[in-house]
Design brief:
70 residues
Length: 70
């Protein structure tokens, strides 16, 4: 019930509107590899990422960075 209440409250839309990650390139800080560009956030609050080769991936957990490590 709690999850349904959140989904019906408009929370996801507000979360998408306020996201600073949409449109940003993201990196895996463990090995500094480019994961892709965040194109959206799905209804389960996961990042939807487009890779450089055009593949769409969903990231549900883990560390990311918006800038590559030097």
């Amino acid at each position: 019930k709690y999850c349904t209440d959140i989904m019906n409250s408009g929370f996801i839309d507000k979360y998408r509107e306020r996201s600073v990650l949409t449109g940003k390139k993201i990196y895996n800080p463990a090995d500094n590899t480019l994961l892709g560009t965040v194109i959206s956030i799905d209804d389960r609050c996961r990042l939807i990422v487009r890779t450089d080769d055009g593949e769409t991936r969903v990231i549900s957990s883990g560390d990311i960075s918006v800038r590559p490590l030097k």
